[in-house]
């Protein structure tokens, strides 16, 4: 099964107070950093939830708007699965400044060994589910649609309701999964 990397970038960044995708670290926006990392390991990369920025430097990246607005990352995941042409989707957030190609390769390896009957692979980071560093099977889309129709928007609830295998991330992978949600967290990333 082919796997598309989907970078979810349609959030409102309420806690940050500004669009996290356009924050700049070492001369690149967080969105560009995520896309370059994804392109290092995957032939198919899409950004969900926003239009292509003017002057976008990576031509092979597809941009797709959210099919539904105001339903959070679960809606973005549904859009990603619909746009992936039957591929599984490796979903990542756009606000992961330490994401590495080796972390994505590790997750691809977990996806290759999953049971075909599962809805995907949910990554555990020190025992906590990382829904925006997990793999979702194309067959998961009907479950997502039923969750959305019932007014449920939680990726965690989706993983609980589905047949997801779990993979505990090793420490080096956990270090790559840091995301930024507040100005204080961002300041800590920039200082390092």
TrEMBL record:
Its main location: cytoplasm. Its EC number is 2.7.7.77. Pfam families: NTP_transf_3. Its cofactor is Mg(2+). One of its GO terms (cellular component) is cytoplasm. It is found in: Cytoplasm. The keyword Transferase applies. One of its GO terms (biological process) is Mo-molybdopterin cofactor biosynthetic process. GTP binds at residues 8-10, 20, 66, 95. Mg(2+) binds at residue 95. It catalyses: Mo-molybdopterin + GTP + H(+) = Mo-molybdopterin guanine dinucleotide + diphosphate. It is an enzyme of class 2 (transferase). Residues 6-157 form the MobA-like NTP transferase domain. GO terms for molecular function: GTP binding; metal ion binding; molybdenum cofactor guanylyltransferase activity. Keywords: Cytoplasm, GTP-binding, Magnesium, Metal-binding, Molybdenum cofactor biosynthesis, Nucleotide-binding, Nucleotidyltransferase, Transferase. The keyword RNA-binding does not apply. PANTHER family: MOLYBDENUM COFACTOR GUANYLYLTRANSFERASE (PTHR19136). Transfers a GMP moiety from GTP to Mo-molybdopterin (Mo-MPT) cofactor (Moco or molybdenum cofactor) to form Mo-molybdopterin guanine dinucleotide (Mo-MGD) cofactor. The N-terminal domain determines nucleotide recognition and specific binding, while the C-terminal domain determines the specific binding to the target protein. Belongs to the MobA family. This is Probable molybdenum cofactor guanylyltransferase.
């Amino acid at each position: 099964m082919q796997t598309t990397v989907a970078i979810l970038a349609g959030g409102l960044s309420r806690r940050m107070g500004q669009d996290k995708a356009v924050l700049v670290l070492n001369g690149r926006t967080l969105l560009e950093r995520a896309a370059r990392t994804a392109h290092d390991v995957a032939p198919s990369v899409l950004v969900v939830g926003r239009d292509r920025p003017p002057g976008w430097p990576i031509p092979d990246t597809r941009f797709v708007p959210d099919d539904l607005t105001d339903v959070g990352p679960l809606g973005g995941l549904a859009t990603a699965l619909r746009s992936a042409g039957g591929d599984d989707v490796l979903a990542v957030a756009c606000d992961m400044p330490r994401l590495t190609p080796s972390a994505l390769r590790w997750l691809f390896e977990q996806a290759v060994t999953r049971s075909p009957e599962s809805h995907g692979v949910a990554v555990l980071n020190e025992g906590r589910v990382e829904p925006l560093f997990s793999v979702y099977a194309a067959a998961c889309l009907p479950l997502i649609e039923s969750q959305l129709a019932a007014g449920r928007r939680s990726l965690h609830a989706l993983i609980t309701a589905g047949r997801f295998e779990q993979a505990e991330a090793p420490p080096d992978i956990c270090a790559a999964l840091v995301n930024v949600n507040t100005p204080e967290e961002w300041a800590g990333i920039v200082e390092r």
